[in-house]
Write a structure and sequence with these properties.
Shape: elongated
Distance between the termini: 85 Å
Structural class: alpha+beta
CATH architecture of the largest domain: Beta Barrel
Number of domains: 2
Largest sheet: 8 strands, antiparallel, barrel
Helix content: 10-25%
Order of helices and strands: HEEEEEEEEEE
Number of strands: 10
Amino acid sequence: MMKKTAISVMLFISIIALQAQNGLVNFNSLNKESHNFRSLGSNSLTSSLQTKNKPYKMSIGGVVSAIGIGPSYKAFLGDFLAFQTDLLWKTLFTFDNDLLSGANLFSSVELYLNVMCQNRLKETKKAELFWFMGGGISLGYETSGNGKFGVNALMGLEYVFVNTPFSFQMDIRPGYGMLFNSGKELKGAHLYPSKNPWSFFDWMIGFGFRYAFK
């Protein structure tokens, strides 16, 4: 009797152990599959974001505004980071920073260097709309012979066509500008306040048209 009882208990324990082992194997398999699924989903999402947020590698074209015109180049340094440079002829109407010297009008040739954060705002089958924000500097000379330096913010929208290699951009560039030279006063001093350097409110509203290399 004792022998039969012992055999029954051992058989019962063996069945429980076998079921527990199968359950553990199934749980580990399920956990592994779940991990693989999460990894695949995460990689797919990351890849999708990286692909969709970068509309092109670089673009070449021009910038036109009410006060300036010139060639423009833009390139993406990463998924959300872009660099833009413009060489512009400008005729600027502006005020002295203290607003006491009245308005001034002068022409200049300037090289703009800007870095911006850019992200997709809306997407359709035909085009993508991006917003961007950043800033940079401008270097050049005023036509009377004075040097020009400026710092500026940059913000705007870019519309990129999906099926054609073109983009359209509108931006605003408020900033701080300065005319200077090595003498005691600015060249063409009768046009400006008796200051060297002379600082002023620098600005531009530009429209860019570029051919995009995707």
